[in-house]
Design goal:
By secondary structure, the protein is an all-alpha fold. 71% of the residues lie in helices and 0% in strands.
């Protein structure tokens, strides 16, 4: 089922906000695995048919909530250099995505994503954050790799380890990836 584009504001935005809030509240109260569409609809003050019409099924709803949660709320911090900014961003990304909540959101974002649009949106969030870091560095006169190179050489290995080899993760791994990347692009 394809999702409709939603206009900002209005009833549609209120429904989305109340349903998302209901999912978050109920997940913390009863656990994610106990959630049902009727339970969520009742808490949100909508009918189950509204939820099914908008999201298709519970997994697509959980995926939508996960993508919204994975959207960064703030710009990456400015630490004064590309190396410091990118390292801090990579460490924070690793910390957030490898947490139990991060794992759950990644799983939900991907499981309810039959057309790949949610995965693409999550990727776009990371790319936007990286773009900000790289733009600041270029404005300071620093040489920078392109965004896709950072995605390929920092984000992709981090995500692989988060998903498949979490026992071998730590901030030092994120620092090593950034150091290797920048070592090959430094003047």
């Amino acid at each position: 089922m394809s999702r409709q584009m939603v206009r900002p504001g209005g009833r549609s935005a209120r429904v989305q906000a109340s349903v998302h809030a209901a999912v978050r509240e109920l997940a913390s109260e009863v656990g994610r695995d106990a959630l049902t569409v009727p339970m969520i609809a009742q808490r949100a003050g909508v009918t189950p048919s509204t939820v099914y019409r908008r999201w298709g099924d519970l997994q697509e709803l959980l995926s939508d909530v996960a993508v919204e949660h994975l959207r960064p709320e703030t710009a990456p911090a400015d630490h004064g250099s590309l190396s410091a900014d990118l390292t801090a961003w990579a460490e924070q990304f690793l910390d957030e995505m490898s947490s139990p909540a991060g794992h759950a959101y990644i799983r939900d974002a991907l499981l309810g994503d039959p057309d790949g649009s949610n995965a693409g949106q999550c990727s776009a969030y990371a790319a936007q954050q990286i773009d900000l870091v790289l733009t600041r560095a270029r404005e300071r006169g620093e040489e920078t790799p392109d965004t896709e190179t950072v995605v390929d050489r920092v984000v992709a290995p981090l995500m692989y380890r988060i998903l498949f080899r979490p026992q071998e993760l730590g901030a030092s791994y994120a620092r090593r990836l950034v150091g290797t990347l920048l070592g090959s692009t430094s003047p």
